[in-house]
């Protein structure tokens, strides 16, 4: 893991096992966090441990993955107004990291993704999430359609975001537990995923740009959902 926000959040997370903290001399001057005693290294040493071109800010952390969560771990303790986000084959770690950050901002109960054909929790994802990887539970599932049915059985209203949907998102929201399902850029939701959702909704757009990057779409959808459910104008 690398970058100030991601590393500080990981060190502060009691569920994260941290092994070694690397700091450049410049970064060490302003490092005040308690915990691991840092190892002071040259910037090129950190460069060796992170992806090429990564903006690590002179900070890197060797840490174990977070403990795996099951759907039941987050579902049955979820509040009556819980909000979930499901990703259908979104593989870009930058997109998933940005979505996680929006999930943290809008109080999402959990982010749910397939354990295959989806971004993994790399340092790049953690850096983009800017600490949100430590704040938002991430659940990996074998079958997304089966998971949607499990959510429905727990009184979660599942809405698939689809550009060709007949109704806008605001028109298909209802009080109670909500899950928003977003697909990969280009192909969107897979057919079975869309068919398993309770309903589909689109984000109204104007002009020749008819679609948004999936991370931007997630932020807009979460904002609209929170506004409508709180009784505000979308």
**Sheet of most strands:** 6 strands, parallel
CATH homologous superfamily title of the largest domain: SPOUT methyltransferase, trefoil knot domain
In the predicted model, the low-confidence regions spanning at least 5 consecutive residues are: none
The helix fraction, in percent, is: 25-40%
Tell me the count of domains: 2
Count the strands?
9
CATH fold description of the largest domain:
Alpha/beta knot
The proportion of residues in beta strands is 15-25%
CATH class of the largest domain: Alpha Beta
What is the succession of H and E elements?
A: HEHEHEHEHEHEHEHEHEH
Integer-rounded radius of gyration? 19 Å
Please tell me the overall pLDDT. Answer: 91
Derived from helix and strand composition plus strand pairing, the structural class reads alpha/beta
Distance between the termini: 37 Å
Helix tally equals 10
CATH architecture of the largest domain: 3-Layer(aba) Sandwich
- Strands in their spatial order, largest beta sheet: 6-5-4-8-7-9
**What is the 3D form?**
elongated
């Amino acid at each position: 893991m690398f970058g100030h926000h991601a590393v500080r959040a990981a060190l502060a997370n009691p569920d994260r096992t941290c092994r070694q903290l690397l700091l450049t001399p410049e970064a060490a001057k302003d490092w005040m966090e308690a915990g691991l005693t840092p190892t002071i290294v040259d910037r090129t040493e950190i460069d060796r441990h992170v992806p090429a071109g990564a903006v690590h800010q002179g900070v890197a952390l060797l840490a174990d993955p977070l403990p795996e969560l099951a759907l039941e771990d987050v579902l049955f303790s979820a509040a009556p107004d819980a909000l979930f986000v499901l990703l259908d084959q979104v593989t870009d770690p930058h997109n998933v990291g940005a979505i996680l950050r929006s999930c943290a901002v809008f109080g999402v109960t959990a982010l749910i993704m397939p354990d295959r054909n989806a971004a993994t929790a790399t340092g790049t994802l953690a850096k983009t999430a800017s600490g949100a990887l430590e704040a938002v539970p991430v659940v990996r599932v074998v079958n997304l359609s089966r998971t949607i049915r499990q959510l429905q059985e727990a009184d979660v209203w599942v809405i698939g975001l689809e550009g060709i949907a007949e109704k806008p998102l605001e028109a298909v929201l209802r009080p109670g537990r909500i899950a928003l399902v977003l697909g990969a850029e280009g192909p969107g939701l897979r057919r079975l995923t869309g068919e398993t959702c309770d309903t589909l909704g689109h984000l109204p757009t104007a002009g020749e740009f008819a679609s948004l990057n999936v991370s931007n779409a997630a932020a807009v959808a979460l904002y609209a959902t929170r506004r409508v459910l709180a009784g505000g104008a979308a």
